[in-house]
């Protein structure tokens, strides 16, 4: 009952604000009609339009306001509107002008940093956030944003420091707790991360991202069932949360719940048909229930969407091998190796396919390469031993089986007992 009343109040409040902005637009339109050189009227009407999401109209009004009275605040406001339209370079030009007119304009540095971040210039963004903090040491958002930029540079410890500062300035900042949890996850401190997600959820019980991120940390700690519950909650709060469906599918797959995992991948694909990953993972799950033809169809689609992923060719090779198409299998591993020449498992599996065609010398060469790339690959030693035995190299075979046993593949000792005595 309380939730319904709260939502009703929020809806009425938003409608009231909308009416106020619309009233301001009408009022200042009349003022502009009477006083066409009134820069302040254009600026206020532009702000009202921005609050209603009319960013093109906003920019038109700010253009006129700047033409009549160039000033730092209006350049900054126009930069914000340009950012909202995705024109980050144009926004940076406006923030530059605002800073030129007012060198101590902390907000202009902060927002310029944000625009640079959108363009992938994280180092430049951090420099701007530094200046914003120097000018305004209690700017919570500047610390928060700088933490995000540092996280993207994988400087997780520095990111945690900035989120600590943001939380110190605002102990009810749910997003800062959530992001600090993500940064702690980057440091593999998943227990600490979960504590932060708990706090974020306490502050905002409808925080879908916090449930999603907590699920990831629980998954990392092996708490798979708890992770699924958090993914369920994230999906309940945001039914279009494709990443939550995808991750829940991965966790269900890990638990051996392949049919349920496939349903999650289906939903992920329904929500995002242009992402290759759920096709590939659905293909893997189909392979685990013996549907290799269905798996290949999914791998085909994944490759259509992303032809440069060696893992998908590798997985399609496994499906073809299980269908007895050894020539086709070799072709898939050739492609995987072409994309990743250091793909040890692809060499090993290609070797197995060659062996199935009776090409034992080619098989041995591939196992040699697999072992060169991964000297601890017990399965490669074991299979190379079989291939060597097939060409009459009993000594080499027994040596390889011995090495496989040393690496933990105990079934290799059975071969030693049966064929090396």
Structure in words:
The chain is mainly alpha-helical and 421 residues long. It starts with a helix and ends with a helix. It is elongated. The protein has 24 helices and no strands. The model is unreliable at 1-5 (pLDDT under 50).
In short:
The chain has 421 residues and is an all-alpha fold.
Stretches with pLDDT under 50, minimum 5 residues: 1-5
Helix tally? Answer: 24
Q: H/E series, N to C?
A: HHHHHHHHHHHHHHHHHHHHHHHH
Terminal CA distance: 79 Å
> How much of the residues is beta strand, in percent?
under 5%
Which SSEs are present, and which pair or pack?
Layout: H1 2-34, H2 39-51, H3 55-68, H4 72-84, H5 88-101, H6 106-118, H7 122-135, H8 140-152, H9 156-169, H10 174-186, H11 190-203, H12 208-220, H13 224-237, H14 242-254, H15 258-271, H16 276-288, H17 292-305, H18 310-322, H19 326-339, H20 344-356, H21 360-373, H22 378-390, H23 394-406, H24 411-419
